[in-house]
Amino acid sequence: MRKVLVAALGLATFLGLTATATAHELDHPAPAFSAGAPVGTGLNSGGPGATWKLIKTFATGNPHTDLDFFTRKGEIYASVGTLAVGPNGGGQTIIKLTQGGEVVEDPLSPASPQFVSSHPSASCLSDPAAALGLQHDVEATPKGNTILNTANSAASRRDAQLLIDATDNEGRCHDATVFGLDPNSPQGGLEIIDITNIAAPVEIGLTSHIGEGHTVNIDPKRPHIAYAVTSDSVTVTCDANDTSCTRANENPTSSQRFNLDGFEVVDLSSCMNFEPLTSVIVKRMTCRPQVYRYRYPSALMALGHTQDALAGCHELEIYPNDRLTCASINATMYFDLSGAFDKNGKPKGTPLPCRTRASSSPPPYAKSPALGGAVVTDCVFDGSGQELTIPRWLTIGAPSLTGVNFLGSAFHQGRGGPYDSTQDVDVSHEAELSGSQRLIIATDERGGGVTPPGATCVGSPGTPTDNKLGNGGLHAYRVDRLQSASPSGPDAAAATTAWNAYAPSPTGPKAIYRANIHTGPQATVCTAHVFQQIPGQNRIFMGWYSQGTQVVDFVEHPNGTVEFKEAGWFIPENANTWTSAVFKVKQNADGTFTYWGATGDFNLGAAGRSAIDIYKVTLPAPPRPFGQEGGEVCAPNDDDDADGLIDSREIFLFTLLGIPDSDFDGIKDGNDDANGNGRDDEDEDDDDGCPDRDSDDDGTDDEDEDDDD
């Protein structure tokens, strides 16, 4: 099949489909970008020893959502998504953040952060009722030399080639009939955007999924692998003790048959790594993603302990050792995917038999593939036009991603349960491993971010809200206390059992952080949302809607307790911060750290700037992950010459040349004993508090794998 496709592409090129066509000759052009009305420059900021600076604001007028960073040619960029529709080139707004690798802080300088381009995936009319589903969550791939969710020596550091834009409803601009107002509009999914010409982003393919695409995540070490994440809710009917459940999405007559309790893996190999000057048409002819489905084998893996509620992953994170965290609304889940990919990074199992088709959008929003338009890989139907919804998928043998190992969950009450934000999670929105990998930290997005009383804050400034039903927070769970199934038995007893997964705080049985309120009372948009941990630090930057950017430190005490502390806040005038993340970090001579970050802000009526803010903050040194207390910043565990000795402890030239035996004595550097103390050089760092890599998770550090040969 590949040979036939290559031959077809060769013929297409021969017929003149060359790289001379530009992106906007093939897509509807993004509206010309213009600076929006100025937004307020007032700033409410603080924190112990914190110094904040608002460097520059891009007042786009677009309601911004998630963002992701990437690099091209040594410079750092951000792509920032749009909620529903953006009048000013809405969809993905691309900002260049650095010049020569540094942030120029004079906003009037042409070298300061600058708008580069837009991709108009949200520049059309849409159904207002679909707004919260058309979030245009974004991930870049590869990510280049950006800050990842953890230190990752296996990550691809090549320049970014694609942006992946996710939508969780009908009505996306580039695949909809009547802009989503038609109930028969296709399901949402992923839009694959080529950014090899950063000034002219261009869509080269789309996918459509039964569960659509609420969020999307990229595997940094397998940049061709994307996770389409659904956040779908599924009604369940369980027995009295919650030991057995029936799922509504298995009923072929239920509308929930489209709801996926799991996630899908998308192999983008055919959409990447093209030769220079490859034309857009050739990329579109080649881009045919393969999609692999994973569905929870049992509802009990993700069932609320009090409310019988079930959902797919809302957001997930993938780690260098192939551990995966999944915030699944009613549970926070933990998986091992080390058996799910072959040595070349190809998913194991059987892909869905998806059909391919033209976009459903009329001109100018799409073109027929015969005229050079992008193709939709439609995994809602197979090639015969029959559904790939859950009931029929089961009847054709449930073709799936294999090799997924479920490790356990922290079970929450289930959405709408009786416990307040000081007791339990109502909506597990995002979950990440701590740097020590001893904890999973989950955010509780009460009220879905907008609905009172869950998203309501009232109380005295500088203290957590007096409304304990609102202002959901950060919750810390012990990885070694996760449970394999939702607790059975009476609800009160089940809750007590589920809460055993919590890490305790120094003052109580549960480590929970709720933001101090630094504004007046907020009727809505006041709860925890998207967060980022800085690798090597127990420091979190996050968006907290009306409370702007929140910086939270946490200390892992030797006795197992976890202590959260407010480290800072940054609330521009009229803020409604969807996300806030750091793209550059510097340790200063006095031990403090300076961070440069960016936000996505949206106006939802009650509050909002509809802007992108670039900021800088200097803060006291953060706590370290467990095992690193009081130590220096741990060096990366890279071992480029594969001699057992990490690069930071070697002579740079020999590492660069790939010489594993730098003194030519016949012994690899890692197994030498240069100081004659009886210990191999590779083991000299074992008592420095910094974790050593164990990529196969067998309990032996990689550097020691050869010690018994």
In short:
It contains 5 helices and 34 strands. It is mainly β.
Describe the structure.
The protein is mainly beta. 6% of the residues lie in helices and 29% in strands. It has five helices and 34 strands. The protein has helices spanning 2-14, 280-286, 390-395, 491-498, 652-657, and strands at residues 43-46, 51-58, 64-72, 75-82, 92-96, 114-119, 137-141, 162-166, 189-194, 202-208, 215-219, 222-229, 233-238, 245-247, 262-267, 290-295, 309-311, 315-318, 323-327, 331-336, 354-358, 375-382, 405-411, 428-433, 439-444, 474-478, 512-513, 531-533, 539-543, 549-556, 562-572, 577-587, 593-601, 612-619. Strands 7-8-9-10-22-21 form a six-stranded mixed sheet. A five-stranded antiparallel sheet has the order 1-31-30-29-28, with no helix packed on it. The chain has a four-stranded antiparallel sheet with strand order 2-34-33-32, with no helix packed on it. β32 (577-587) and β33 form a beta hairpin. The protein starts with a helix and ends in a 52-residue tail after the last helix. Residues 1-26 have low confidence and may be disordered.
